């Protein structure tokens, strides 16, 4: 079959459609799905999500982080320190202890300006809105016209990727998550682009993927998983969680509400809304099983595993990894056994 191109939004320029990344005056690194890319992009800098997971990078963080620290944080810290001249600023959040430690080390060891968004753990939109106002004060160079342009641009890209993600959710699924992850990498790096892909129809057992953030380098891991099952939806930072943000009013107030009201992070307390959101997807997509993929030492999700098994009441597989290839034989064996259970 010929390659398929999902209809590109009309506002995408010809140069971007051909794959040329737009030019920006340096990068603004960010660490969390609650940090609006529209606000970062309105500065004229390029938003760049810190999602590196290369074990070769991790060794560069040994001076500041324990060996048993989160592998994503270790890789991201090494990446920022190595590429520090490219960063105009880093914007992080109080999402987890290790993410906060990354921001502390950057502040202590570089001249990169750092801003930390204090995410409320309970349902307090007023606190979040005030934090976004403070972020605007930190970034300074933003006007209302430029902000509206950024909203229209990024919301258009989310529409494009929502359409793509819908193809993997079809019956049968037409797009692998490995392909989708490759295509959304540009969005996370602040240079989204359209792309061609060959249809990938699959009759493998349908599963959804939950768990820890996943890295730019996770493509081979998705390939391993999808040799046994087809991932038809995920709720993981680093893949398609960003498409859940839908900005209705193209102004600052609309940005605040859309980002705050996205399906919540599992760290929110109470996190019942997280479970309710996943259950709605289960009812619509009718997967045969659930895979929860956690990074080593990611307690935020591992503390929830028993509750997930009980609440979702589907065949359940928990996989643990550290972005290396050391346990791939074990992962392959467990995936093959899980597939046999589902069929």
Folded structure, characterized:
This protein has 343 residues and is α/β, with parallel strands linked by helices. The chain has 2 domains: 17-143, Rossmann fold (3-Layer(aba) Sandwich), CATH 3.40.50; 145-342, Rossmann fold. It is 43% helix and 13% strand. The protein contains 14 helices and 8 strands. It has helices spanning 14-17, 37-41, 55-58, 71-82, 97-109, 125-139, 144-168, 177-188, 219-225, 252-260, 272-285, 299-302, 305-312, 328-342; strands at 27-30, 46-49, 87-93, 114-117, 206-211, 230-234, 289-295, 316-321. The protein has a 4-stranded parallel sheet, sandwiched between helices. Strands 6-5-7-8 form a 4-stranded parallel sheet, with helices on both faces. Helix 9 links the parallel strand 5 and strand 6 (230-234). The relative contact order is 0.14. The model is unreliable at 1-24 (pLDDT under 50).
CATH class of the largest domain: Alpha Beta
As a percent range, the share of helical residues equals 40-55%
Structural class based on helices, strands and sheet pairing: alpha/beta
The dominant shape is globular
Ends apart, CA distance between termini: 28 Å
Our count of domains comes out at 2
> What is the makeup of the main sheet?
4 strands, parallel
**Chain-averaged pLDDT:** 90
Into which percentage range does the β-strand content fall?
Answer: 5-15%
Write the CATH architecture name of the largest domain: 3-Layer(aba) Sandwich
Q: What is the fold named in CATH at topology level of the largest domain?
A: Rossmann fold
Q: Element order, helices and strands?
A: HEHEHHEHEHHHEHEHHEHHEH
- Rounded radius of gyration (Å): 20 Å
